[in-house]
Design brief:
Number of helices: 5
Shape: globular
Number of domains: 1
Strand content: 25-35%
Radius of gyration: 15 Å
Order of helices and strands: HEHEHEHEHEEE
Structural class: alpha/beta
Strand order of the largest sheet: 3-2-1-4-5-7-6
Helix content: 25-40%
Distance between the termini: 31 Å
CATH superfamily: Vaccinia Virus protein VP39
CATH architecture: 3-Layer(aba) Sandwich
Oligomer: single chain
Number of strands: 7
Largest sheet: 7 strands, mixed
């Protein structure tokens, strides 16, 4: 796993093998950030990384200048790895060990970018609940973007605020924005 752009471009990250994760591939991450580069200047933004796993997306955001990042995962090993890596690279990432559903119920800050990468075995209802909770609890800034990574078997194209989707192999990124017009 490597950081693909920004001040830490090219840095390798080697998480422990025993973490229960499925990191976003470098190809998928590069494609995702090519899209985000057309929508945002990362300097000064705030981001929330849910189901953060190894922190792969959080490090990429920090490397590109995102000012404030909160990473959430249920696994203590993942949280420990994120904390250690953030300290080693001097990154402003705050990590929380928490159930994402409970975190979303209680959390009151809003973010410019929210990235959600739950386990692919989540049910359709669980994916929909996460997206609904983010919008209903005003966790996304008005001009912000919610990105959900999911398998091609999970369908989110019927949900409100979906702007567009991009497929990369077996993975799909669904992009949600307030009052969005669907792109082709």
């Amino acid at each position: 796993m490597r950081i693909i752009s920004g001040k830490l471009k090219g840095r390798r990250i080697n998480p422990p093998k025993n973490l229960p994760v499925r990191p976003t591939t470098d190809m998928g991450k590069e494609s995702l950030f090519n899209i985000l580069n057309h929508h945002f200047n990362f300097n000064g933004l705030s981001a929330l990384d849910l189901f953060a796993g190894t922190g792969n997306i959080s490090y990429e955001l920090a490397s590109r200048g995102v000012e404030s990042i909160v990473s959430v995962d249920t696994d203590q090993g993942c949280i420990n790895f994120i904390k250690k890596t953030a300290k080693d690279f001097d990154l402003n990432i705050i990590s929380h060990k928490a159930d994402v559903f409970k975190f979303l119920e209680k959390h009151q800050s809003s973010y410019d970018l929210i990235f959600v990468d739950p386990p692919y075995n989540f049910t359709q209802e669980q994916f929909e609940q996460i997206i609904s909770n983010i919008f209903n609890n005003n966790l996304l800034d008005e001009e912000g973007m919610l990105i959900v990574e999911h398998s091609k078997f999970t369908k989110l194209d019927h949900l409100p605020n979906l702007s567009f989707e991009r497929n990369y192999g077996g993975s799909v990124f669904s992009f949600f924005e307030f009052e969005s017009e669907k792109e082709n």
